[in-house]
What does this fold into?
Amino acid sequence: MPHLEIEGALQGEGLRVAIAVARFNSFITDRLLAGALDGLRRHGVAEDDVTVVRVPGSWELPVTVKALAESSKYDAIISLGAVIRGDTPHFDYVAGEAAKGVGQVMVSTGVPVAFGVLTTNTLEQAIDRAGAKSGNKGFDAATTVIEMVSVLRQIRGK
It folds into this structure.
Protein backbone atom coordinates (compact mmCIF):
# COMPACT_ATOMS: atom_id res chain seq x y z
CA MET A 1 0.00 0.00 0.00
CA PRO A 2 1.49 3.41 -0.94
CA HIS A 3 2.15 5.83 1.85
CA LEU A 4 3.19 9.44 2.25
CA GLU A 5 6.69 9.99 3.51
CA ILE A 6 7.94 13.35 4.70
CA GLU A 7 11.65 14.09 4.92
CA GLY A 8 13.41 17.39 5.31
CA ALA A 9 15.69 18.97 2.76
CA LEU A 10 18.98 20.66 3.59
CA GLN A 11 18.22 23.84 1.67
CA GLY A 12 18.50 26.92 3.83
CA GLU A 13 17.87 29.64 1.24
CA GLY A 14 15.61 32.31 2.71
CA LEU A 15 15.66 30.96 6.26
CA ARG A 16 16.05 33.35 9.16
CA VAL A 17 18.05 31.74 11.96
CA ALA A 18 19.03 32.93 15.42
CA ILE A 19 21.93 31.45 17.34
CA ALA A 20 21.99 31.82 21.13
CA VAL A 21 25.51 31.05 22.33
CA ALA A 22 26.88 30.91 25.86
CA ARG A 23 30.07 32.83 26.64
CA PHE A 24 31.00 30.48 29.52
CA ASN A 25 33.61 28.03 28.21
CA SER A 26 34.03 30.34 25.21
CA PHE A 27 37.12 28.45 24.03
CA ILE A 28 34.63 25.67 23.21
CA THR A 29 31.50 27.67 22.36
CA ASP A 30 33.38 29.89 19.89
CA ARG A 31 34.28 26.72 17.96
CA LEU A 32 30.66 25.56 18.08
CA LEU A 33 29.52 28.95 16.79
CA ALA A 34 32.04 28.82 13.94
CA GLY A 35 30.74 25.36 13.04
CA ALA A 36 27.11 26.48 13.13
CA LEU A 37 27.81 29.51 10.95
CA ASP A 38 29.71 27.32 8.50
CA GLY A 39 26.85 24.80 8.39
CA LEU A 40 24.27 27.51 7.73
CA ARG A 41 26.40 29.13 5.02
CA ARG A 42 27.14 25.83 3.27
CA HIS A 43 23.42 25.09 3.08
CA GLY A 44 22.40 28.44 1.63
CA VAL A 45 21.44 30.56 4.64
CA ALA A 46 22.48 34.15 3.93
CA GLU A 47 24.76 35.84 6.45
CA ASP A 48 22.28 38.73 6.74
CA ASP A 49 19.59 36.24 7.81
CA VAL A 50 21.56 35.07 10.86
CA THR A 51 21.47 36.76 14.26
CA VAL A 52 23.92 35.75 17.00
CA VAL A 53 22.96 36.45 20.61
CA ARG A 54 25.60 35.96 23.28
CA VAL A 55 24.52 35.13 26.83
CA PRO A 56 26.55 34.52 30.00
CA GLY A 57 26.11 30.74 30.15
CA SER A 58 24.00 27.71 29.30
CA TRP A 59 21.68 28.46 32.23
CA GLU A 60 20.51 31.60 30.39
CA LEU A 61 19.81 29.85 27.10
CA PRO A 62 16.16 28.84 27.73
CA VAL A 63 14.87 32.36 28.43
CA THR A 64 16.86 33.71 25.50
CA VAL A 65 15.61 31.02 23.12
CA LYS A 66 12.06 31.70 24.34
CA ALA A 67 12.35 35.43 23.61
CA LEU A 68 13.78 34.69 20.15
CA ALA A 69 11.03 32.18 19.35
CA GLU A 70 8.27 34.50 20.55
CA SER A 71 9.64 37.39 18.48
CA SER A 72 8.37 35.69 15.28
CA LYS A 73 11.51 36.95 13.52
CA TYR A 74 13.16 33.55 13.09
CA ASP A 75 12.32 30.31 11.34
CA ALA A 76 14.64 28.37 13.64
CA ILE A 77 16.99 28.78 16.57
CA ILE A 78 20.27 27.13 17.49
CA SER A 79 21.33 27.00 21.14
CA LEU A 80 25.04 26.51 21.80
CA GLY A 81 26.87 25.99 25.07
CA ALA A 82 29.34 23.77 26.90
CA VAL A 83 28.75 22.34 30.35
CA ILE A 84 31.70 20.32 31.58
CA ARG A 85 31.35 18.12 34.67
CA GLY A 86 33.27 19.24 37.72
CA ASP A 87 33.53 18.10 41.33
CA THR A 88 30.11 19.43 42.39
CA PRO A 89 26.52 18.70 41.29
CA HIS A 90 26.38 22.12 39.54
CA PHE A 91 26.81 20.33 36.19
CA ASP A 92 23.62 18.30 36.71
CA TYR A 93 21.51 21.36 37.45
CA VAL A 94 22.79 23.50 34.60
CA ALA A 95 22.83 20.76 31.96
CA GLY A 96 19.42 19.41 32.95
CA GLU A 97 17.66 22.75 33.15
CA ALA A 98 19.20 24.01 29.91
CA ALA A 99 18.00 20.89 28.07
CA LYS A 100 14.56 20.92 29.65
CA GLY A 101 14.08 24.67 29.14
CA VAL A 102 15.12 24.70 25.50
CA GLY A 103 12.96 21.65 24.81
CA GLN A 104 9.94 23.26 26.42
CA VAL A 105 10.37 26.37 24.26
CA MET A 106 10.45 24.29 21.10
CA VAL A 107 7.33 22.34 22.01
CA SER A 108 5.36 25.34 23.28
CA THR A 109 6.17 27.67 20.36
CA GLY A 110 6.49 25.23 17.48
CA VAL A 111 9.75 26.89 16.42
CA PRO A 112 12.51 24.34 15.73
CA VAL A 113 15.38 24.67 18.19
CA ALA A 114 18.59 22.66 17.94
CA PHE A 115 20.18 21.74 21.25
CA GLY A 116 23.86 22.27 20.58
CA VAL A 117 24.86 22.36 24.23
CA LEU A 118 27.72 20.00 24.94
CA THR A 119 27.36 18.13 28.23
CA THR A 120 30.64 16.33 28.73
CA ASN A 121 32.58 14.70 31.53
CA THR A 122 35.92 16.16 30.46
CA LEU A 123 37.41 19.09 28.62
CA GLU A 124 38.90 16.67 26.09
CA GLN A 125 35.42 15.35 25.25
CA ALA A 126 34.21 18.92 24.69
CA ILE A 127 37.17 19.69 22.42
CA ASP A 128 36.49 16.50 20.43
CA ARG A 129 32.85 17.56 19.86
CA ALA A 130 33.74 21.15 18.97
CA GLY A 131 35.68 20.40 15.83
CA ALA A 132 38.22 17.71 16.66
CA LYS A 133 37.72 13.92 16.53
CA SER A 134 33.91 13.86 16.76
CA GLY A 135 33.14 16.60 14.24
CA ASN A 136 31.53 19.88 15.22
CA LYS A 137 28.21 19.73 17.04
CA GLY A 138 27.57 23.36 16.08
CA PHE A 139 27.65 22.35 12.42
CA ASP A 140 25.32 19.44 13.23
CA ALA A 141 22.91 21.80 15.01
CA ALA A 142 22.79 24.02 11.91
CA THR A 143 21.86 21.14 9.62
CA THR A 144 19.29 19.93 12.15
CA VAL A 145 17.34 23.22 12.18
CA ILE A 146 17.44 23.52 8.40
CA GLU A 147 16.01 20.03 8.05
CA MET A 148 13.40 20.57 10.77
CA VAL A 149 12.09 23.77 9.17
CA SER A 150 11.63 21.80 5.96
CA VAL A 151 9.85 18.93 7.74
CA LEU A 152 7.52 21.21 9.68
CA ARG A 153 6.66 23.27 6.61
CA GLN A 154 5.62 20.11 4.79
CA ILE A 155 3.52 18.92 7.74
CA ARG A 156 1.91 22.34 8.11
CA GLY A 157 1.32 22.65 4.37
CA LYS A 158 3.43 25.78 3.88
